[in-house]
Amino acid sequence: MSSQRSLRTILLGLLAGFLSAPTGLLLAYVVGVIVTAFKTREVLTTLLVAGSFLPLMLIFVLLLPTLLISIIVGLALGIASGFDRRLLIPIGILVGLILGEITLSVILPAIVVPQPDDFTSIVSDYRLSALFGSVLGTIAAVFYRWMSRTPK
Questions:
Q1: Span 131-147, mean pLDDT?
Q2: pTM of the predicted structure, to 2 decimals
Q3: CA torsion, points 137, 143, 147, 149, in degrees to nearest 10?
Q4: What is the mean pLDDT of residues 46-70?
């Protein structure tokens, strides 16, 4: 019975990770459009970025790292849920922060060499990668807590 419960928690963690990846990318898209609008203060430029550049960069540059971060955070949450449910969100934040730093600030720049002011250099900034990983971890933890609630 215990192995079925642990398999269930790990699978719920994986599902939470899979759900947090598109949610995190959608949130990154919305924030990217808002930042572009404030920086340029031009409607046409914002619409061009929102309709072409930003979705392509999120798909080509951030999709695989986001999936990797989210799935590993989900697995960590599934494993950690057996210990204490109150620590799920802090664990999600911490694991997401660490994986965001490693994936986006170390591995991604080694694969795609960032040029000044390009998308890769923005994403690989250690503050933004830590923030993005923390947000992904939080989203995964919230999804996990929501899915693993016991019915009354």
A1: 96
A2: 0.91
A3: 80
A4: 94
